[in-house]
Amino acid sequence: MSGQVMPCSPTEISSLFLFEKLSPEQLGRLCSEGRVERFEPGPVYTEGDPATCFYVMVEGTVVLYRRVGGDDVEVSRTSQRGVYAGAMQAYLGDQVPQVYNNSMRVTEPTRFFVLPAESFSAVMREWFPMAAHLLEGLFFGSKNTQRAVGQRERLLALGSLSAGLTHELNNPAAAAVRATATLRERVGKMRHKLAVIASGAYDPEALARLIEIQERTAELVAKAPALSPLEASDREDDLADWLDDHGIQEGWRLAPTFVQAGLDVDWLEQVAATVDEDTLPSAVGWLNYTVETELLMDEIDDSTNRISHLVDAAKQYSQLDRAPYRVVDVHELLDSTLLMLSGKIGQRIEVVKDYDRTLPAIPAYPAELNQVWTNLVDNAVFAMDSAGGEGTLTVRTAREGDRLLVEFRDTGPGIAPDVRGRIFDPFFTTKPVGQGTGLGLDISWRIVVNKHHGSLHVESVPGDTRFQVLLPLTAPDPDSAPDAETAEEPV
């Protein structure tokens, strides 16, 4: 947008703090190469357009904002004379994309001193060569440092996840090994018990009935009901009494296994009606091995399924063999992240999933969203650990207009108001030295805002801190999205 060109007074622009130390010759050059423009209320330039001019406000009110999703988010509003915006990195030349990193508008008639980007670059390098070199080094040095520390942040997260995954895999793997060894022993004893029964005076019909009971016993194990501790204790007492009454030794040891399998006194009565009194102990012992083998096979099945589930979660988390940009269900991403971090979350923190399963899948970079979830969960766990290690982590999804909300709520001590405005700044951290790089939330912000055109903000009071991620339900083609590592912050 062009404004009304007005005379440029060296005296007036010298009153602006940016130019107050310049010589009359330098002020004269600025006025000859630049201009003063008066803009009526409305836009001055638009985010993403080629950065052609450097603007310094002489008088009026200016507002800077950025496009986030489908909304214009205001990032700055001021009436202070001398504030500047626009092509502030023109002195870097073609080393960086020369585009406006935000949009600017004015809310009242406002005058600017406007300097073409080429002139701004030239005077910076001619008048302040050392400052230009220092700023250039600071700019690229900060970028390189941020990239290197960002990689370190990812490696630290990967190491933590690997340790947690190893721990989670070790438990079911060890359980499967133990169950397999016990199963081998029980099968051997069951073969021996079968030989004892076969050597007895069984008529074929009684033996057939006993085998039928064995088959029905295996079916009952698979359908065993869940009992309360009190119900299980009462049933164990009844079974132990019955076994003692029928001369079966160590009934107290057999009863818990039978109860776990869903068996009761009626089932034992069926067994007793099938065989004679002398053979009953051997028959009960044989069926006990049947029950134990079924329970052990169930344990092996549960353990191997757990391992398979963990491997699937790891693949889902890392997005191995997946397209980097695709339509995803955020609930699958959240579940895989929570499972991968279950070791770090621990038993003392309760995880509550408040999902709206009616939400549609969205186009996204799933591996990078998993990194966002990891950072936010890690911060929530750290906050609750610092307050005693107990608390509740609530992960909620909902629809807000044309965007999808993912909220992480923790019951930690909260974020102090004096640091809340800085938590998304690069290298800022409230964690002790060595426990945080200060890039987790900065990386998360860039992934959500720059790469997914969403928004990330926090609300916090003691006992209730909420990080809210808003993602558009639809998104532009990924090729048009700015790179999350190079996109600039609004000025």
UniProtKB/TrEMBL annotation:
<keyword id="KW-0808">Transferase</keyword>
<dbReference type="Pfam" id="PF00027">
    <property type="entry name" value="cNMP_binding"/>
</dbReference>
<feature type="domain" description="Histidine kinase">
    <location>
        <begin position="296"/>
        <end position="475"/>
    </location>
</feature>
<dbReference type="InterPro" id="IPR018490">
    <property type="entry name" value="cNMP-bd_dom_sf"/>
</dbReference>
<feature type="domain" description="Cyclic nucleotide-binding">
    <location>
        <begin position="18"/>
        <end position="124"/>
    </location>
</feature>
<protein>
    <recommendedName>
        <fullName>histidine kinase</fullName>
        <ecNumber>2.7.13.3</ecNumber>
    </recommendedName>
</protein>
<dbReference type="InterPro" id="IPR036890">
    <property type="entry name" value="HATPase_C_sf"/>
</dbReference>
<keyword id="KW-0902">Two-component regulatory system</keyword>
<dbReference type="InterPro" id="IPR014710">
    <property type="entry name" value="RmlC-like_jellyroll"/>
</dbReference>
<dbReference type="InterPro" id="IPR004358">
    <property type="entry name" value="Sig_transdc_His_kin-like_C"/>
</dbReference>
<keyword id="KW-0418">Kinase</keyword>
<dbReference type="InterPro" id="IPR005467">
    <property type="entry name" value="His_kinase_dom"/>
</dbReference>
<dbReference type="InterPro" id="IPR000595">
    <property type="entry name" value="cNMP-bd_dom"/>
</dbReference>
<dbReference type="InterPro" id="IPR003594">
    <property type="entry name" value="HATPase_dom"/>
</dbReference>
<dbReference type="Pfam" id="PF02518">
    <property type="entry name" value="HATPase_c"/>
</dbReference>
<dbReference type="GO" id="GO:0016301">
    <property type="term" value="F:kinase activity"/>
</dbReference>
